[in-house]
Amino acid sequence: MLYGLMNSREFRFGSALSFSFEIKHAHSNSLARVGTINTPHGQIQTPAFIPVGTKATVKSVLPESMKDLGSQALLSNAYHLYLQPGPEILDEAGGLAKFMNWDGPTFTDSGGFQVLSLGVGFKKVLAMDAQTTRHDDVIAGNKDRLAHVDDEGVTFKSHLDGSMHRFTPEVSMQVQHQIGADIMFAFDECTTLHNTRPYQELAMDRTYAWAIRCLDEHKRLTEERVGKPYQALFGVIQGAQYEDLRKKAATELGSLESDGQSFDGFGIGGALDKGQLGTIVSWVNEILPEDKPRHLLGIGAPEDLFVGVENGCDTFDCVLASRIARTSAVYTMEGRFNLSNSRFKRDFTPIDSECDCYTCTHYTRAYMHHVFRGKEIIAATLATIHNERFIVRLVDQMRQALVDGNFGDLKEQFLGRYLHRSGQARD
Ligand SMILES: [Zn+2]
Predict the structure, then answer these.
(1) Which of 234, 297, 228, 296 is nearest to 264 (CA)?
(2) Is 109 considered catalytic here?
(3) Nearest to 56 by CA among 111, 123, 94, 106
(4) Residue 314 a catalytic site member
(5) Among 188, 314, 317, 352, which one carries the catalytic annotation?
(6) pTM attached to this predicted model
(7) Average confidence (pLDDT) over 67-71
């Protein structure tokens, strides 16, 4: 597929430049591209990995450290911030970035994934591999459900105190406007790979109807909250593993316009079978408008990031890098391994000798082993800095490789080492 060399969209409200996306380098033989997202809080050079600070903090790490390790933006969760401290607190504070002392762009998800994860009682974050999970492993019984979906929205029980709440497309937009991130996502119904085909169709129709309501409420709030920095709204493409549903969603949401308002970009969400990730993403990205950014929601494993980038995704987020760090698991060029393993007790080399992060340039595996075994708080901090740097840098390297025309070489070399060694070193 051949793309034009330069595409740019700018969205202006009043006279202030608010949001734009510029493709700087497009490949003639793949969907991959290099670009820049401009937001009121700064630029994001894409492809880029966006670390997750669920509750307005990347657990155990200072914002300055996230900046130092190359993070260009952070993503927080509307559901969690809605429950605590409440979106009105973030609004009064001057928005998410200012509230958490983050000098850069921010994203929030819509809350849909979290409330619906509770709703079906996922025992895993998402079933990524349909081959190894059975229906009963993934979806809790009806009595265990904490949320119920209807055509208007989702009623759910707080995981914090059991109180009842209701999210509708309008509520999600109001909450996300108050939180004040630069990039927000439309409220969607997130299904699993184990829902039936008729249910996937029903959920997609609902997501489409909600998309229109999100655009309308977003427009109303943007006009009402005059003087605030423009917040971009991304539509979310669902459709599970079905080609016709994914393409239908991309076609309908890609061209959707309500009262002159269209989506500023798109998220690709929902159930994504790992083995089919590239296929599903390419179905969608071949259809979505090429001049708007595309975010692959919740994907962050190294091998999946290569697939996402080569199939035309611009940004990614995932909690995995920091979550596994807190359990002493680290990414390295030699694959993923666990620092608590006794083989590191006298290993006075860095976690990864090729890594340039603060942790690897100042500490050894033996020290990391010691602080993890001793349950010292610094263990989480140092391991998170390393893992986030590893993933941020890997996607930065992919971006450079696209510019240099050697993305295929980078992928082959990296995965050849990483996956081979992972198989040997995993404990
Ligand atoms: Zn490191």
Answers:
(1) 234
(2) yes
(3) 106
(4) no
(5) 317
(6) 0.90
(7) 98
